[in-house]
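Quick one - inputs below.
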Amino acid sequence: MVELVRLPASELLRNPRNWRQHPREQREAMEGIFAEVGVAGAALARRLADGRIELIDGELRADVAADEPIPVLILDVTEAEALKLLAVHDPIGAMAEANEPALRELLEELDTDQAGLRDLLVELSGYESESDEVLGELGESPVPEMDLQPYEHYDYVLFLFRNKLDFESACEQLALSTVQASAMAGKRKIGLGRCLAGDRLLALLDVQQRRGKR
Amino acid sequence: MKPLDLSVWIPSSHRTAEARRAMALLPTATLVVADSERDEYLRAGHSATRLIAHPDLFGLARIRNFIVQRAGTEIVVQVDDDFQSVHAWPGRKRRIYRDPDRLMGIIEGTARLAAEAGARLFGWSNAGKPLYFRPHDPFDFRGPVGRVLGTVGDAVAWDERLATMVDTDATLQELLVNRFVLLDTRFYFHCGAIYGNRGGLQRIRTRELRERDLALMRRKWGPCFDVTSKAKTKGMGTNAIRVVRRM
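Output:
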């Protein structure tokens, strides 16, 4: 990072490689948060050789702010590094997973007069107003049978065979019948995968253990 | 020697050119089109022997059920007509497969795993981006399954009240009844941008129809069903399921 400055958004150079498009809903949500809270995050940018400042992230904020000054974090990055940031900055943020109870609790405390922002909050909550009535009638969880059962741990073990002899030997010992790939007629191009249900494996091991004891 | 009892089907609508590409990639597949579109496909050079017409069924659910009933094989794989290639990330670089033998090998491999594991509905990765590829976690048991999928046996049925979101609904149904689906996340079947191609389901996908189906899905599945951000999908949003199946 080189410096944090406040600049009129209209003076910032838009990045010609920007891939993000901003639909109406997103713009309205951004306008809503600007109106209620103001600018809460700095745009990312880098200084070009001719002194102009080119955005890496924050184009929508700059568009919404127009001539208003916004905070801009000027980074000490090369063009290649800037392109990497441009590609992954939003997707990395989007990889975060929601802690559902925490999110619900947070959303219950929020309210807004801004329509665009309200739409976003409703979307985050997982329901739209028209479905609330239906869910209200059916109770909070209309499909309780869907809940994870105590015995349901879908764990698996993978065995990787690097030669056909070992693979076939293992299949034989695990009582997996030989199969033929019909599509490839002997010129196999994709490794063969087999699956043995855990309970069947345990039964098989049990039988072999008993045989060993005799 | 026990070959798989498997058939591949490509439901298509007003996508003659795209379907030709898909059929070339999967030469043993059968094309399924509406009776009223049959001549359009034949004029476009599709083979009559590899084409079956359905009685102008409305909505993908009815067509999927028609295919499963018609197929007569234990395993039925249904592939989107805009299928273009299979992507995999075995190393740092994406690998793209278009070789028909290899594609059938991938399909058969996953189908066999599903059958042996007891999964009645199976599919492949939903993430066409290397950023989301998880090499340490090659299988997923929650789905959602969609676009390119397979069924084992005839127990899976699509809800014909729905015209859209039918695969998400079928996934949830399987999670409820059979407790899991199998996703082979090593491979991604590339079918172009979601909601981005003309023809197919896109022709009937109106905002009103989607709102109607959304209401039904929410009534059926409550908090287990969700629609993610609408920002990247032309205001439609993408379907998501919220069902815990692994710990």
